[in-house]
Structure formats: C-alpha cells, structure tokens
C-alpha cells in the first residue's frame, strides 16, 4: 500500500510541476497563455482526437487519486487498529512521536482539502460550472483566470489555503515516497528533506504568483475583444 501511495504521489508531483510551469506562461501575455491552453487541447492531433491527451491524463489522475486515497485510508485504518490492540513495545521518544503524529494528521487533512479543491478547480476552470467574477468563455483561459481572481477576490483565500496544503503534502510526500521506494536511506535523508522543502516552496510560489499578480493589478487586463473570437476555430469547443 505504501508503494501505491508513493508511485501515485510522485505522478501527482510531476503533474503539478508541469501545471505550475504552464500557469507561469500567464505572465507572457494573453495571446501566449491562450495559445498554450489551446495547444494542450490539440496535441497529437490527428493521432488523438481533440483533447485526447488531456482526457488520457485525466483518466490516469483519477486512477492515481483513487489508489492514493484508498491506500491512505487502508494504512490509517490499519495503524489505528494496531494502536488500539497494543501499545508500542518500545516507545518512541516523545518529540519523534509527536512529530510523526503531526505529519500524519497534516497529510490526512491536507489530502481532504486537496480533493475538495480539485473538484472546485475543475468546476471553475475546466467545466466552467462555477464562474465567480463574471461570464467565463471556453478557450479564453486568460480572461477566465483574470475574472476569477480580480473580480472575485475571495477565491484567493481558497487557493491560498489549498496551495498551502499542497506544499505541506509535497514537502512530506517527496522524501517519504523516495524512502518507501528505497531510493534514499540513512545519512542522505536530511539532504532530501531540504530538497523537498525547496520543491514545496517553489510549488507554492509558482501557483500563487498569478493569482497574486492579478489581485494586485500586476498583469495586463484582458483585451476587450475575446481571444476566442479571434482564434475561435482553434480555441473554441
């Protein structure tokens, strides 16, 4: 079960790193960002249908999410059962035990927050069923994101909390997964934890950079003419 959690967690890490890279293209302007979003929908056409790659990735993500959450629940239930049946034969040092309990609790509740956030994020920017800030348009990703944070600043708090949970999850998950898979051990663990900290901070900063820039007016306002109107044949659904 730990290996399922490790492999699925590392897949999510690579995905969010790629997602963060794509988000930072927002700073290159409206045409570049919308063009990038459109390119993701048309990659590998005609080998794959429109949005084929995205749907493949979504299917893999759902499978990983189910596996990750299922393994986490199984391990949590097993540990609780073991803790109820017998006390530790050799008690851990109080500080180590407290740290372990804190990490487990943080990962558990952080995971719940992330699942809820993923649902919200999909409803807001993928299916456009939740559109705080105004009328969103399929294919006009730049404008949609601008409206979502500039005209509905309360969403900033949602993203801040969720991305803080993501950073904590990544910080603990990176070194824990590598340790589970036997990639690290002994004296190198402290160094890997430092790397995990840097990765977690980088993810938080990268994902919060765009919402922060939009909220404080550090990026260009979307053009009056819709990007979809100019490039509808490529970007529209």
TrEMBL record:
The keyword RNA-binding does not apply. InterPro entries: Cytochrome_b-558 (IPR011138), SQR/QFR_C/D (IPR034804). It comes from the Bacteria. One of its GO terms (cellular component) is membrane. Keywords: Membrane, Transmembrane, Transmembrane helix. The chain crosses the membrane at residues 53-76, 106-123, 154-174, 194-219. This is Succinate dehydrogenase cytochrome B subunit, b558 family. It comes from Actinomyces graevenitzii F0530.
């Amino acid at each position: 079960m730990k290996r399922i959690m490790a492999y699925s967690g590392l897949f999510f890490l690579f995905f969010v790193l790629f997602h963060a890279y794509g988000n930072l293209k927002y700073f290159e302007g409206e045409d570049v960002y919308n063009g990038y979003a459109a390119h993701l929908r048309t990659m590998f056409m005609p080998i794959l249908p429109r949005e084929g790659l995205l749907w493949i990735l979504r299917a893999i993500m759902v499978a990983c999410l189910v596996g990750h959450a299922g393994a986490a629940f199984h391990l949590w239930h097993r540990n609780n059962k073991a803790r109820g049946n017998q006390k530790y034969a050799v008690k851990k040092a109080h500080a180590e035990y407290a740290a372990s309990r804190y990490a487990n609790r943080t990962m558990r509740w952080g995971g719940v927050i992330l699942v809820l956030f993923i649902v919200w994020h999909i409803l807001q920017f993928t299916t456009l069923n939740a559109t705080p800030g105004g009328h969103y348009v399929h294919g006009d990703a730049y404008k949609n994101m601008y409206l979502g944070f500039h005209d509905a600043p309360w969403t900033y708090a949602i993203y801040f909390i969720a991305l803080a949970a993501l950073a904590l999850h990544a910080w603990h998950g990176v070194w824990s997964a590598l340790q589970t898979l036997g990639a690290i051990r002994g004296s190198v663990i402290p160094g890997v934890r430092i790397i995990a900290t840097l990765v977690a901070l980088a993810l938080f900063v990268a994902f919060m950079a765009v919402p922060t820039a939009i909220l404080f007016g550090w990026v260009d306002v979307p053009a009056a003419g819709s990007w979809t109107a100019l490039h509808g044949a490529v970007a529209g659904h």
